[in-house]
Design goal:
With 245 residues, the protein is an alpha+beta fold.
């Protein structure tokens, strides 16, 4: 510290320096320093951080599991799964940011678990598309009984269902000729024992449903076309779906 005496004034320079002149009796000098900064809050313990991240980890785990075990089928049967998992993800993020809310934690975990349950329900009971092999010669001439065989191969064990739904489309073999669709019907009859109903009469564009009667293997049905003698038709499309309801 450098001290300079100039007339009745003393000047000091340097960090924390104090300057003073002539002080009379009873002079009080107060030295004020800024209060020390409060210490930073301690970091949350590892157990607390893990608890805050728990619902988000569960939601991510459910999403990964669903991607690895996706059952397939129409997206409409996954509405509950998407709803519960989406709500679980949102609540998990909110809880990770805010924390300290046990009801929010419980609600996030419940939504994630309900999403997992909805996915399992679809895996057990959801609709499963199946290939239908059409055997026989086409086109089908109305001058004689046109017969085909529809064969569904045995499904995998996890795809076994109670019922088989068939969507069939019969079309004119030559679209440039006069249509015979309004004159055309067909008979579907199960070949595999135990399937009901025993016979179905269908129009050219129809959806029919069969109870498989506990049948877990391959399924065969006969398809017989009925139309006018001068009509030439073909079974253009067959779509099969296994389901429980």
């Amino acid at each position: 510290m450098v001290e300079k005496k100039r007339e009745n004034r003393v000047e000091t320079h340097g960090p924390g320096s104090v300057a003073g002149g002539n002080f009379g009796d009873g002079t009080t000098i107060n030295f004020q320093y800024p209060p020390p900064s409060p210490p930073p809050p301690p970091p949350p313990p590892p157990r607390r951080r893990l608890l805050e991240a728990l619902p988000l980890l569960v939601a991510v785990a459910v999403a990964v599991y669903s991607a690895l075990t996706w059952p397939g089928g129409p997206q409409s049967q996954y509405v509950l799964f998407y709803g519960f998992l989406g709500a679980g993800l949102v609540l998990s993020v909110v809880y990770a940011v805010r924390g300290k809310s046990w009801p929010l934690l419980a609600l996030a975990l419940v939504c994630c678990l309900l999403g997992l349950g909805a996915l399992g329900s679809v895996a057990r009971n959801g609709e499963v598309p199946v290939e239908i092999d059409v055997q026989g010669a086409q086109p089908l001439d109305g001058s004689r009984a046109g017969a085909l065989t529809l064969v569904m191969s045995a499904p995998a064990a996890e795809d076994v269902r109670d019922r088989l739904r068939l969507a069939l489309t019969i079309s004119d073999d030559d679209p440039n000729t006069a249509t015979c669709l309004h004159k055309t019907t067909a008979t579907l009859r199960p070949i595999t024992p135990g399937i009901t109903p025993g016979e179905r009469q269908i129009a050219a564009d129809s959806v029919v449903d069969f109870d498989l009667g506990g049948q877990h293997g391959a399924v065969s049905l006969s398809f017989v076309l009925h139309t006018e003698p001068n009509c030439v038709m073909r079974l253009a499309k067959v779509k099969g779906t296994l389901h429980n309801s």
